[in-house]
Amino acid sequence: MIKYAHYRKRRLKETSKKLLVFAISMVIFITIVTVVAVFVLSDATPLEYLIGGIFGLASTAFGFYFWKAKNENIAKYGNNVSEVEDDIDVCYNQDIN
User: Fold this and answer.
1) If we measure between CA atoms, which residue out of 51, 49, 69 comes closest to residue 61?
2) pLDDT at residue 27 above 60?
3) Share of the chain above pLDDT 90, in %
4) What is the rounded distance in angstroms from the CA atom of residue 58 to the CA atom of residue 21?
5) How far apart are CA 25 and CA 30, in angstroms?
C-alpha cells in the first residue's frame, strides 16, 4: 500500500495585497533614504518631491485596496445600507429626545 503525503495547496496572495505590501515597503525605503540624504547633503529639497510623491503612491494603493475590499464585502454580505441607516436614525433620535 502506497501512502500519499497530504499536501496543502498553497494559497497565493491576492494581487491587491501584493500591491499594498509593495507600496508600504516603498514608503519606508524612500523615507529612510530621503532622511539620510537630507542629513548627508544638508539640503531639504528632496523632501519636497520624494516624500510627496511616495505618499501619493501609497494613498492611491490604499484607496484602491479599500475600494476593492468594500465592493467584495458588498458582494459577499449584500447591500444592507438601508437597514444600517434606519438603525442609526433610531439611535440618533433616541439620544436627542
Assistant:
1) 69
2) yes
3) 3
4) 10
5) 8
Report which of residues 82 and 75 the model is more confident about.
75
Cα dist from 35 to 17, 24, 28, whole Å: 27, 17, 11
Residue 41 CA to residue 25 CA, distance in Å, equals: 24
**Residue 55 contacts by C-beta under 8 Å, 6 or more apart in sequence?**
27
The amino acid sitting at 54 is: I
* pTM beyond cutoff 0.90: no
* 3-state SS, one letter per residue, for 37-84: HHHHHCCCHHHHHHHHHHHHHHHHHHHHHHHHHHHHHHHHHCCCHHHH
Local confidence band at 23 (pLDDT 50, 70, 90 cut-offs): confident
Direct distance between the N- and C-terminal alpha carbons of the chain, in angstroms, rounded to an integer: 76
